[in-house]
Design brief:
heterodimer, A: mainly alpha, ABC transporter involved in vitamin B12 uptake, BtuC, two-stranded antiparallel sheet, 13 helices, about 70% helix, about 0% strand, globular, B: alpha/beta, Rossmann fold, 6-stranded mixed β-sheet, about 30% helix
């Protein structure tokens, strides 16, 4: 009987984790998905995430409107995406190296500009209390939903359709699959890739706003714990499909909630080990989705990460 | 109607196939005259071939016409009207389409998506049902079919080339430029593709301008031919009045010193009879292997190559030949089966290769057999840089002697005629034929027991190809066992002693080359075996 209750509340805690933790994964991975579909990889989204968190928090504090903060986070993400896109368009520049530099630049500049933002309290994003019918505080807590989560899930479905049914989607896939073919048809490969990187930066910035304006909330230097990097791995695991990205983001959210959930159950031993669950999951999934001597099905042909030549 | 701007000149042009006149086109790249006042006349609805050795300027000329390059001098008349073609888009507007030597289809996308992308007027939001209907009715008018929902990665080379042409036709091109479109096709596939293009010209739907190396295609399909040589117009003629000898002499200037193979003339070595007695150098038993996507590519393959014998492996590309070569060269693991060299198990380690004298000339040598950023001398030493002649120092030789490495490279360069003869150049600065020569020098610079060769003359001109063929024959005369994998059936018929045909990862046909029937081989290559 006692075990049943414990399992129930563990599942509730995991559900709560999905609601809170998965949203940044979701937005960063969708952004990375757009960029990678066009044949570029942006490892700098971790920096974009942190920069978005800082600028979103700052604008929300200054204007009092958290939604303006979200917009500002997206725009500042676009800015970092633009820098990445432009740098990678120079001859003989490797996108992975630029990505790592941009990751360090993004986090560094955020810490630098964000110093005065650690103290003040900015307006937070509101949430829907879907669990108000229940008297159980755990149920109420697990069913608190922020508007960004359904927005992101809807965006994933929309992106999947867009990649198949719009000209821009088809052209982006073409550019990522075979740049020479795209050029032969008269498309501007570099311009489209910059566009895709800017769009990816926008979404990653919004993921950052969720961190500072909803959960965990506030601005400090330990806000992100590598979600931006894990989202890159997640895109590969999801085989460049936005809907699978969304599902994987939810899974990662649940894994991220495992440690705190078990702790709230009174399990103190190995607490740090369970906190490592998302990272372990990343490693396991990457190992499972890769086999020697094979290319990944569905991988964009131009991607330097999976390119065999 | 009178007030139209010059930009709209395209819409003023008559419908139907285009005629082209190129007048004294010149193009320089740095100090090199790629094109020097070349003129060309292609009649509407004709099938026109452009011949010339590598570097003759054929590709440059058609790229100017297709808007990829801007000529430095001269002009183009299309349907008798002068046109300024500044970009590929301008060329598209005029109805000019281009099919390249290398595929420009997106292999991760479907046939339907590739065709839709080719449309210039694709709406931003697609009505997939209507698009598919349009594609289906377009496909129904064509003499060959492709599955619209198939992923391009799963198509054969021939099907990909057909898709390239379908893409152009779907865009209603009136002039089609093709740059060696059949270099990766079987003769049967080439005939199918070229036959269809020829038919379209007869129906007055299309003008075709094709770059080719193959006289067979010129004599079979062309109405007229223009020959370029070293960036200049070498001659022009109508078919069938112009013979292959005449074309060859235009291409090469001095035909006496340059024997040219036209058609399947072959030289069967006299020692073919004594072959059964020779030692079995390479034995492959029940070999299985998978491709990059984990799909079985080589299935239950048995093959024996004896010393002093050249075995040809024919087949349409993508039927497991590449994977077979990669397994034999240690680039890929076999999933089952046995390989014996000189009777001993062979797993393609560096040690075994050295012990048994296994050497190779893989396809795309710059990628598969060279370190492209290293110098010619370093690349030539890749096999033996850690061995005593090249290493120096106390007893075992811990140090690499660059002096000896460069000296050895110089003698190989002289022996094999690598140009330019400078061992210190990075190898990726050499032309394709000279990279191939440099690799050949490394692999044949010592006695060879077993030689694995794949498409050795792909994309090379006649002279370079003939030189490489001669080297292979010399190695065989010296007693090497040679496995020659090639997509060019004429090459296999001319060189090999025995021929096997690979289809879907298996050997489906084996025959002594002397008794080989090209029709039957083509049939087996196309998968038509019982």
């Amino acid at each position: 009987m006692h075990d049943g209750v414990a399992l129930g509340s563990l599942l509730l805690a995991l559900l709560g984790g999905i609601m809170r933790v998965s949203t940044p994964f979701l937005f960063v991975s969708l952004g990375e998905c757009i960029t990678e579909i066009s044949g570029r990889i942006n490892l700098g989204l971790e920096g974009t995430l942190v920069f978005g968190a800082m600028s979103g928090y700052g604008v929300s504090w200054l204007t009092g409107s958290p939604w303006l903060g979200v917009l500002a986070a997206g725009v500042s993400g676009m800015l970092l995406g633009l820098i990445h896109g432009l740098l990678c368009s120079l001859p003989k520049v490797n996108d992975i190296a630029v990505g790592i530099a941009m990751m360090l630049f993004g986090t560094g500049i955020s810490f630098f500009i964000g110093k005065p933002l650690i103290q003040p309290e900015a307006a937070m994003l509101p949430s829907w209390h879907l669990g108000s019918w229940s008297h159980d505080p755990q149920v109420r807590d697990a069913l608190r939903v922020n508007a960004l989560l359904p927005l992101g899930l809807g965006l994933a479905a929309l992106l999947r359709l867009a990649f198949k049914r719009t000209r821009l989607g088809l052209v982006l896939r073409l550019v990522g699959d075979n740049a020479a073919a795209a050029r032969a048809l008269g498309y501007h490969v570099v311009r489209l890739r910059i566009l895709a990187t800017v769009a990816g930066g926008f979404l990653a910035g919004i993921g950052g706003a969720f961190l500072s304006l909803y959960y965990p909330g506030g601005w400090n230097e330990g806000l992100s714990s590598g979600q931006g990097l894990m989202a890159v791995a997640l895109v590969i695991f999801a085989r460049w499909d936005p809907v699978r990205c969304a599902l994987a983001a939810l899974l990662f959210g649940a894994a991220g909630a495992l440690g705190p959930a078990l702790q709230s159950q009174g399990l103190t031993q190995g607490y740090y080990l369970f906190n490592a669950a998302p990272y372990v999951l990343t490693l396991i999934l990457m190992t499972l989705s890769w086999r020697p001597g094979q290319t990944l099905a569905g991988s964009p042909g131009e991607l330097s990460l999976t390119n065999r030549s | 109607m009178d007030g139209r701007l010059p930009d709209h000149a395209a819409s003023l042009m008559p419908d139907g196939p285009l005629s082209i006149q190129a007048i004294e086109i010149s193009k320089r790249f740095g100090d090199i005259h790629a094109l020097d006042q070349v003129s060309l006349q292609v009649d509407a609805a004709s099938f026109h071939c452009l011949l010339g050795e590598n570097g003759a300027g054929k590709s440059t000329l058609v790229k100017c016409l297709a808007g990829f390059y801007r000529q430095d001098g001269g002009s183009f008349l299309l349907a008798g009207r002068e046109q300024d073609i500044r970009s590929p888009r301008d060329a598209h507007k005029l109805g000019i389409g281009m099919v390249y030597q290398h595929f420009t289809v997106a292999s991760g996308m479907t046939v339907a998506e590739n065709l839709m992308l080719a449309r210039d007027d694709l709406p931003w939001l697609l009505n997939l049902a209507r698009e598919h209907q349009a594609l289906q009715s377009f496909m129904a008018d064509m003499s060959f079919r492709l599955d619209l929902s198939a992923r391009v990665a799963d198509l054969s080379a021939g099907e990909k080339q057909k898709l390239e042409i379908l893409k152009q036709l779907y865009q209603k091109r009136r002039l089609l430029i093709l740059d060696e479109p059949t270099s990766v096709l079987t003769p049967a596939e080439a005939d199918e593709v070229l036959g269809m293009l020829h038919q379209l010209t007869r129906q007055r739907k299309l003008t075709v301008l094709m770059i080719t190396h193959k006289f067979r295609e010129v004599t079979a399909y062309a109405d007229a031919v223009t020959v370029l040589r070293r960036g200049r117009l070498a001659g022009t003629g109508r078919l069938p009045e112009t013979g292959t000898d005449e074309m060859a002499s235009m291409m090469m200037g001095n035909p006496e010193n340059r024997p040219v193979q036209t058609g399947p003339e072959r030289t069967i070595p006299a020692k073919a009879q004594s072959m059964n007695l020779a030692a079995e150098r390479l034995i492959i038993r029940g070999l299985h292997g998978s491709n990059d996507r984990g799909v079985p590519a080589v299935t239950d393959l048995d093959l024996v190559v004896r010393s002093g014998e050249m075995i040809g492996v024919a087949g349409v590309s993508g039927n497991g030949q590449k994977e077979l070569v990669e397994i034999l060269l240690g680039q890929r693991d076999a999933s089952a089966g046995e390989i014996l060299v000189d009777g001993l198990p062979y797993r393609a380690t560096r040690h075994e290769m050295r012990l048994h004298g296994v050497y190779s000339l893989p396809e795309e040598p710059l990628r598969n057999a060279c370190v492209s950023s290293m110098t010619v001398a370093e690349n030539m030493a890749l096999r033996n840089f850690d061995q005593v002649p090249v290493t120096a120092g106390w007893k075992t030789g811990w140090f690499l002697s660059r002096r000896r490495m460069v000296a050895r490279s110089r003698s190989l360069i002289a022996e094999f005629g690598v140009r330019p003869p400078d061992p210190m150049l990075p190898i990726d600065g050499l032309s394709g034929g000279n990279v191939q020569r440099a690799v050949l020098a490394r692999e044949l610079g010592q006695p060879v027991n077993l030689l694995i060769v794949a498409n050795p003359v792909f994309g090379l001109d006649f002279a370079a190809a003939a030189a490489i063929h001669q080297r292979l024959q010399m190695a065989r005369e010296a007693g090497a066992a040679i496995l020659l994998v090639s997509e060019d059936l004429d090459e296999l018929l001319a060189l090999t002693d025995r021929l096997v045909v690979m289809s879907a990862g298996r050997i489906v046909h084996a025959v002594a080359t002397a008794d080989a029937d090209p029709v039957a081989i083509g049939h087996h290559m196309a998968g038509g075996h019982a």
